[in-house]
Amino acid sequence: MYRYDQYDQTMVDTRVAEFRDQTRRRIEGHLTEDQFKPLRLQNGLYLQLHAYMLRVAVPYGTLNSAQMHMLATIADKYDRGYGHFTTRQNIQYNWIKLEDAPDILADLATVEMHAIQTSGNCIRNISSDHYAGAAADEVTDPRPYAELLRQWSSFHPEFLALPRKFKIAVIASETDRAAMKLHDIGIRIVKNESGELGAAFYVGGGMGRTPMIAPLVREFVPLDQLITYSEACLRVYNRYGRRDNKYKARIKILVHELGLDEYRRQVEDEFAQLQGQDIEPPLAELERIGEYFRDPPFTVGLPEEIDRSDPDFALWVDRNTHAHKQPGYVAVTISLKPVGGIPGDATAAQIHLMADLAREYSFDECRVTHAQNIVLAHVEKQRLHELWSKLDEAGLGTANLDLIGDIIACPGLDYCSLANARSIPVAQKISQRFAENGKDGVLGELKLKISGCINACGHHHAGHIGILGVDKKGTENYQLLLGGCEGDDTSLGKITGPGFDEDGIVNAVETATDVYLRERADGERFLDTYRRIGMEPFKEALYG
Amino acid sequence: MKILTGNDLKDGRVTWWDGQNWSIHIEDAVDVGEEAAAILAREEAARRVNSSYAIDAEPDPSGHGVRPAHIKDRIRALGPTVRPDLTLKPADPEARNWVI
Amino acid sequence: MVDLAGTTDNVQFRFRDDEPVDHGAVTVDAFLDQSNAAAVRIEPGDDARKLLPHLERVKLVEVNFPAFTDGRGYSSARILREAGYQGELRAVGDVLVDQLSHFRRCGFDSFAPDQPLNEEDAQRAFATWPQVYQAAADDRAPIWALRHGRKA
Question: Where in chain A are the domains?
C-alpha cells in the first residue's frame, strides 16, 4: 500500500499545526462557531449528540497493522474504548473533546493518517473496492488512481467551499463492489480496444432526499488527462451547483437540471480551457504510486483444499471468503455484525487483534468495506482454520457476509444529531429475530440497510430491503423499502406504504422475507424474486 | 416550560442551564420562561456554552427535575440507549425507559 | 455609471508594487457597457469569462465573497489568471484569516476584508503551506513536479 514520502508527511504535519492553531483561536474566542465550523468539519470533527465526533480518513479503505493499532490506541486514549466503521470506509469516534482533537491528529500523523476533508463542503474520502488487488476480475488495482485523486483533492484551493459535500469512488472491474454509481463521481478504470487503460466517468449519483443513479458522462478519459478532466467536472459544479437550497446542492441536482448533454458539454468546454495549464501530473507520478500496489509476495503452489470437518468453520468459509486471483488464497471478511450487536462497532481490543491478524495472515494489510466489515484480502487457504479460530474467540467470526444478519446501519438517533429515529435497536432486533427463527441461514443473499434519516448514511435506498427512520409527529417511525441494489444493476428501493413503529418494522421485515420464501424460484435471491413478482404481493402481505 | 441546552465548547459534553451555570445533569435544568434568547446570547458570547438552544420540557413524572419533550434531547440528557454502560446512569435499569 | 464604493481604503494586504487603482469598481454589466472603466467587481453569480475579451484594459478585478462559504469566487479568480490576466485581483467581503492561503493560490494578490484581520494570524496563514499538492494559479510547483525533477 501507499507509503508517505517527505512531502506527504509535511502536508499532514502542516495540517495538524494549522488545526491546532485554529482550535486555540476558537477556544480563546478569536473565531466564532460559524467561522470555526467549516474548519473543524474539514478536519473531520462534528459536534454531535453526546460530544464531538471525529471521523478519521481511511483512504480507499486500506490500512496496515500499525495504523489499525493506532486506531485502537486512540479509542482507549481519547474515547471510550471503541470505534465505529462507516459506510464510506472510514472510522468514527463518538466521545471526543475539542481540546484533544489536535493531539489526536498529531498521533494519527505519526502513522501516516489524518482526518482531512472527511466532512465539510469539499471533496471527501475517496472510496474503492474492498477486494482491490485480490479480485480476479479487475483490469488493474484501482487504488493508485484513488491515491492520485486523494492528493489532488487534498487542500485543493478552488474546491474547499463547494455547494455541498463531494464523494468519489474508484473501481476497476465490471462488477461494481463500491456502489460507484451512487457517488457524485464514480470512476471505473477500463481498457479500450487498443488495450490502453483509461477512466469511465459517471457523474451525478447519490442518495439522500433525491436519490439518483449517476449517468455515464465520458466513456474514456486517458490516464494522462485524469486530473484535468476531474478538475473540469468539479469546476463546473463549483460555479453552477445550487447554493440557494441545501437539499438541492449536490451535483446530482445540477446534472439533472442541466440535463446530461448540457452538463457534459460544459465539462468538455472547461476541459478544453484547462488544457495547456500544466495541471496534469506526469504519468510517472501514477507509475510511482502504482509501485506501492504491486502484488504482495504470494507463495506459489499452495494447497487449494480446505479441511471442512468442523461444520461451523465450513459455514464460515462458504459465506465469508471470496475467490482470489492467486491460487491457494482467498479474501476473508471479518464480520462486525454479531447477532444482536451494533453494526460496524469494534472494541479497541478487537481492533488491536485485527491489526495483528492483518500482519500475520494478510501481508500486513486490511480493508474497511462500505458494508462496515473488515477484509483481509490475501489469506492462504491452508491457514484459514487457524485464522477463523482466533476470530471466533474474539466475537469476530460471525458467518453472515451479505446475509440478512449482515446489516448496514448508520448510528442513528442514539448518536447523531441529524437523525429522526434510532437505527441501531432496529438492527439489533432484526438480527436477533432472524437468528432465533433460523431464517437467517435460509434466506441467502439479502442486503438490509437502515438509515435513521433521509441523509441516507445507511444507504437504505440501495438495500434489497431498506429501512428509513422518520419523525411521525414527534415519535419514531420506520418506512420499509424493497428492491434497492448498489451493484452493476443499480436500482433504488421503493417504499411499500405506510410506516411502522419499532416492533412493527421488525415484523414487516419478517413478513417480506416470508413472501420471498413462499414465492422464490430456484436460485433466486430476495432481490431477484422481488424484481420478478413486483411490489404487489409484498404490499398485500404487509397491509392486507 | 423552556429549558436551555448546548455542549461544552472544550469537551463537547451536553449541558443544561441550571440558572447560574451549565450542568451535565438534566435534573438541574431550570425553566427560563421568556429569557431564553438573552441568556443564550450572553452565555455563547462568553463561551461558556456552544451550539446552544431552547427546548420544551415538562416537569418529570417522578417529581424530580424535568423531562425534555423530544426523544432526541432525552437521549442527549442520558446517553445512547444501546450502550447503557456509556450513559450518565449506567447502573439504573429504569434510565432507558425514561428516554423512550 | 454605477460606481461602487472603492475598496482600496480597506485593503489590508497587497502583494503588488504598482499603484492601486484610485476609483471604484463597476459591475460586470456596467463594465461591458463602458470602454473607459478599468476596475470591475465580480459577484458570485457572474461569469468571469465575460471579461476575457477586455482584459487588456482591466487594472483591478474585485471578487466579492458575500459569505466565505460561497466558493465561486475561487473559480472566477483562477479563470482570470489562466486567461493571462496580470492586473490586481482583490478578494473583498467576508475574507477571513483561514482562507488566505487558498485565496493566494487561486491568484488573489490583494485583500479588502469587511472586518480587519489580525496581522499576526494573517501572516501566519499566508505562510501555512511549505508544499502544495496541486497546480493552481500561483507559481508554486506542486509536489508531483518536485518528485519528478522540477525545481521548486
Answer: 6-109, 142-290, 311-393, 408-543
